[in-house]
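Bit of a strange request maybe. I'm writing a small parser for structure token strings and I need a real example to test against, not something I typed by hand. Could someone generate the tokens for this chain?
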Amino acid sequence: MVRFITASLIILFAYTAWCQPEPKEPLGLALENFKYPFPVQYLKLRVQGQDVIMAYMDVKPVANANDKTVLLLHGKNFFGAYWERTIRFLAGQGYRVIVPDQIGFGKSSKASIIYSFQLLAEQTKHLLDSLSISTVAVVGHSMGGMLATRFTLMYPGMVSHLILENPIGLEDYKVKVPYSSIEKEYEKELKKTEAGIHKYHEAYYVVWKLEYEPYVQVQYRWTLSAEYNRLAWVNALTSHMIYTQPVVYEFQNIKRPTLLIIGQADRTSPGKEALSEEERKTVGQYPALGRKVAESITGAHLIEFENVGHIPHLESAERFQQALKDFIAQ
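Reply from user aminoacidic:
Good idea to test on real output. This should exercise your parser:
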């Protein structure tokens, strides 16, 4: 009897150990152990006295090359790889596609510098200049929409088309969201958990799919790194950039052909966790914000995606791709 119980316990312990999920491997701050869908190249830059590298993908057209280039700018909680389907589609349509990871993000350097959209726009121009690219259609998602707006305002002669996909910055967060210092944002970054990151990402979509999980895991596995405090500080710095550098007052100055693609179920608003339940209802109202901004940009075209959240290029890929194709072909 004792032998039977002992054997049973051994089997139970072995089964329990086998059922436990594999320990998750920490990610290097530059995603050294995370594979991108296309080859990654690096541009060396000197920024505020620091040597940094800017990672980017340069994907050539796979058929019917048209000598046109599309620049894809990522959001704050993402990196260039999440554009994979968009890249493949555009390359198939004959476009060259440039996809940078901004400094502070993805595979690029995590530099402790003063971040600004002007700085990121300037670095992006350096990249294009290094590739001898003089004209691009600029696509910006989320925070990338704020950057795309700033890039267009700074270098209008380089922009053939501007496409804003559920950009943040359609409102001035300082008006409604209480100020949070860089130190407080840093402390919040250090307290991130897998469950918390997952909950935040779930809010981006109307229906959660397993294909979105890798973006959660990148952010979580970063927190397991022994150097995560450096990335947490950079994340705090870029959050401060978004809060203190609104672009909403300058949309009226855009003079390039502009398309806004707005998922109507999106309610993203940085810092809204600091608001009351009632106050949260007054921010991130993308249906109204999209229409207001479209009216402020001369000749802007607005496409509204019903039952789609913050990331149409993932949640409604085919419709997003068709809208993009039709607009930049004009």
